[in-house]
Amino acid sequence: GENVEQHPSTLSVQEGDSAVIKCTYSDSASNYFPWYKQELGKRPQLIIDIRSNVGEKKDQRIAVTLNKTAKHFSLHITETQPEDSAVYFCAANNWENEKLTFGTGTRLTIIP
Amino acid sequence: GAVVSQHPSRVICKSGTSVKIECRSLDFQATTMFWYRQFPKQSLMLMATSNEGSKATYEQGVEKDKFLINHASLTLSTLTVTSAHPEDSSFYICSARDETEVVEQYFGPGTRLTVT
After folding, report:
1. CA dist., res. B94 & res. B108, Å (int)
2. In angstroms, rounded to a whole number, what is the distance separating the alpha carbons of residues B50 and A71?
3. Most buried residue, B2, B24, B67, B77, by most Cβ within 10 Å?
4. Distances (CA, A) of A74 to A58, A63, A66, B15
5. Of the candidates A45, A93, A104, which has its C-beta nearest B103's C-beta?
């Protein structure tokens, strides 16, 4: 089955600086890679996703890059703000089996 | 659109009793729903995949007789934790996939189960 590794587990960033979270996956058949933000006690919220036919996708301050050859993808948050503080999860999915496999999570803290 | 609700949001039960959690897709039809468990400071772990009208598919290590899943309609799936024990205390989250979409899953708000 799929295995998704995520680094770092914790990340502290000065407000206004950029944050980068990286994930690797094992199953070359995976073709959908969403990123979720989860605040304490709340549901995961989809913040951006990328499909395997695209190398990069951007939505305002958030971008995701995908390297299919190396089987890794990254989340980039620019101009970080205190409200960006949360736990972020990457995930990988194969359209055929429908199951999302989550990474271990990154606790991001934005320092004012 | 694409709203998923869960009920109850919090439940406390005594050891040995059973608890039922409901997951509903409010504005779309969900042929497939997923049940996850999340322990404190850990990731979401898929427990089972439920398809409307058929038996759920459980992940390895998840006891199907303990975690009963029923997906009786296109908008409702239920998870029943039978003979609950303190180690079953966790955050249970469901998600649903819109049958008209390919992959995106919409998550419910979660249910905090505490077994005393």
Report:
1. 5
2. 29
3. B77
4. 12, 8, 7, 43
5. A93
Instruction: Work out the number of other CB atoms within 10 angstroms of the CB of residue A110.
Output: 20
Average pLDDT of chain A to the nearest whole number? 94
Per-residue model confidence as pLDDT tens digits over A70-85: 999 999 999 999 999 9
Sign of CA dihedral B89, B29, A58, A99: positive
**Given this model, what pLDDT does residue B2 score?**
85
Taking CB atoms and an 8 Å cutoff, what residues of chain A touch B42? 104-105
Provide the token pair at B47: 């427990």
Tokens of B83: 């003979």
pLDDT of residue A98: 76
- The tokens of A77 are what? 């948050």
Buried b (16+ CB within 10 A) or exposed e, A37-66: bbeeeebbeebbbbebeeeeeeeeebbbbb
Distance, CA of B69 to chain centre: 8
